[in-house]
Amino acid sequence: MNSARRAHTKSKNGCDGCKQMKRKCDERIPCTNCTKRHRTCSLLASVPSSSASPPSPPASPPQPHETFSISDFALFHHFTTSTSSLIANEPPYSSPWKTGVPALATQYPFLLHEVLALAAVHLSQLNPSKSAYYLRVAGEHQAFALSLFRAALAAGIGDGDAAEPLFACSALFVSYYFAVAPDPAALLFSTDPPGPPEWMLPLRGCTELVRCYKRSITDGPMGNLMSDYIAVLRAPTSGGADAHIDGLRDGLAALSGDWSEGGVLLPVLDKLRTCFALSDSDSGDGVSNKTATFMFAATVPARFVDMLGEKSPGALVVMAFWCVLLHRINRRWMLYGADRASEMLDLIESLLSPRFREMIRWPLEVVKSTPQVRASNGQGDATSSAMDVT
Fold first, then answer.
1. Which string of DSSP letters, residue by residue, matches 143-195?
2. Which residues pair with 99 in a beta bridge?
3. In sequence order, what are the residues at sequence separation of 6 or more whose Cβ sits closer than 8 angstroms to the Cβ of residue 124?
4. Which residue of 13, 19, 67, 232 has the fewest CB atoms within a 10 Å radius of its CB?
5. CA atoms within 13 Å, Cβ hemisphere of 135
6. DSSP state of 82
7. What integer pLDDT is reported at residue 75 of this predicted model?
8. Considering the entire predicted model, what is its pTM?
9. Contact 37, 20 (CB under 8 A)
10. Closest CA to 225 of 93, 98, 105, 97
11. Which one-letter DSSP state was computed for residue 167?
């Protein structure tokens, strides 16, 4: 027997994520493992980018498009002529995505990469035979966008000039996560590492930017979208789902004696009630539905988000009700090819014990009795909101 064994070649230059998972890194930038998991690859830090601080004295700012290929220009063109129309196709909500965001993207590399990532995802849906290629391209641009976005946040917003592109990029992140989520679990909680769902974090950051830099955003190209944020603040406080939410409140309150997190969830139901009331008031253009759906996730307390990451049964029950709101916007292109609300409900039901499962009968009845209606080629009746760019 030959005792010699082929040695496993371990790269000394692999990324931190591959080292942590004890996987072989192919050292691409970003590496394939990180791209597949939609995580920021540490190898990106070794690549000079247009967001890096220039040497002193500062020269003229490097242009973010200088290192982009012809295919990147094609993606940018596709975003401006097609993808942006799916984000919003009616004035005044369409102009920020058709003209304002592309203009900002030429100045801020993190936004430009996110625009290209979303265009590539859209093309993956329009061209099934090339889906794998476009999703790989999308993952690479997304990794760069995340890395540069975090660097921009760490550098500070200063006088607010960067607030608008950060706001736009945060919103586009949500579109990306919903479009590429491999399974419903990824939309409810993160498993690697354990924690809250990734799509909620940029959405909540988007809301914080609005709170802190409302004037800067209102005065810029994204200003038209601010009306949706204000609409949530003025939303009615009661609607057609009140009886069902009251029943959920009673069920959770009954558990408060032996379940310590009941008190955390009860105030969350007030936000859920407001979002349902806003959705019920939708005039038919879809704006109120979409605003209500994503503003709930953007404004709930941080502890609730943490509870999702912990797979708290009470938090999962609340998200089952939220799935009814998500189901109301099922013609959105981000959901094309999958009934996200139904998938998420199936998973929630499988994770709950009988006493909690009984509480989600209404969401199951609503979502399961109304089949998903797909839009041709992923193109739905897309109108936008400040929190909804999906």
1. HHHHHHHHHHHHH--TTTTTHHHHHHHHHHHHHHHHHH-SSTHHHH-EETTEE
2. none
3. 130, 131, 133, 134, 135, 138
4. 13
5. 18
6. I
7. 96
8. 0.73
9. no
10. 93
11. H
